[in-house]
Specification:
- There is one protein chain.
- The chain has helices at about 5-15, 35-40, 45-50, 65-80, 90-95, 140-145, 160-165, 170-180, 185-200, 205-210, 220-230, 260-265, 295-305, 325-335, and strands at about 250, 275.
- The chain is mostly helical.
- The longest helix is centred in the middle third of the chain and has 13 residues, at about 185-200.
- It is globular and about 65 Å long.
- The structure holds heme C (HEC) (2 copies).
Amino acid sequence: MLRTVIAPLLIACLAYLPAAHSEEQSDDQTAVHPDAQQSVEQSASASDLATWRLPPVTYPSSNPYNRAKEELGRKLFFDPRISENPARTCAACHHPGLGWADSMQRALGNQQGLGRHTPSLINAGYSKAFFWDGRATTLEDAVSQDLLSPGMAKDETPDSIVKRIASIAAYRQEFTTAFSSSGISFERITDALATFLRGIRSSSTPFDHWLLGDSAAIPESAKRGFALFTGKADCIACHTPPNFTDSSFHNTGINTVDPGHYEISGKDKDRNAFKTPGLSDAALTPPYMHNGSKATLAEVIDYYDRGGDTLDGGNELHPLHLNDREKADLLAFLLSLSGEAPETLIPALPLALTP
Ligand code: HEC
Ligand code: HEC
């Protein structure tokens, strides 16, 4: 679609490969409380459990963190003036009250192209692949593509966005503070938004408390569900620690005409293959899958149990033959991955006063 417009940006962004802050490369090996260990009868040892603890998010050296930049990104995220169509703020589709998604099967306003389900932005800062088809490899790249997508406003260009934002005097001051020099560019807008997004993390969930040693934090059924997840049901084959995703692409037998990652890689094995989504806070973000085809987590479990919807065409799944209790256990585990929807500060936006 707009790939021709964004190709130069893509190339620029690919050079960004995240170089982690050394102080943030913590190998957080906090010991797991012995109770937590005991209550999981199966193979999970203390070190297995520790692998599920999310480390602090890292910021690339090409776009380092500072507080002013994060707060500027927060404003841009909620500001209707980011788009020529004021109904299309980032938050219109990635709403904090809806798990940073929109609760709809497919994104509204995205009538062009394939029309996919809006993914949650929770823990996006940990991803290595973005969009359902993986057409972006850095968060900055993903943000710049979404800024120009037809879901925002038709015929938007980097210049038109910069011009609108730069016409607001208070923003000019905020960019100067955030970037330590004056000037508003498309790249700076993208960098500020990406910095804000890296701060959107899952809140502390019952599962997190269990990992930290509170054996009563999740019910026994959820512990059995974790054993299934990492054992018989083999969800862990793709939903790997610590963020429940391998940042890779799989054909899981969803009934779809969407080519998925094949469009990017051109490889046959990637036909109808989509990015494995993380599962933190999944209970907050129905419906599920790239096409929003599964309304509830229980439906997702039934779908995995039957080995997907289409059994041919490269589907990597196989039927699991779970009984009702095992399905309930798996569901209890998935629910333990969700915390309360976090309170999100919606900022006051700079007024466009003309002197
Ligand atoms: C019209 C609804 C809509 C709006 C507005 C919107 N997005 Fe999105 N966003 C989507 C959809 C749909 C996808 C997935 C598209 C795909 O996979 O092809 C997505 C994907 C993303 C992703 C990739 C997430 C991941 O884990 O793969 C990021 C990051 C993102 N959006 C950020 C933003 C930002 C920042 C803005 C504001 C500039 C924004 N979005 C505005 C609908 C929207
Ligand atoms: C072969 C890799 C693979 C395996 C095994 C796997 N998943 Fe997935 N999972 C994926 C992919 C890929 C998607 C996205 C598919 C799509 O959108 O079409 C997904 C989507 C999901 C979603 C929807 C998340 C969302 O935000 O839309 C949930 C929930 C989920 N999986 C849970 C599980 C559970 C539970 C198991 C084990 C029973 C499991 N997965 C096994 C790869 C896998």
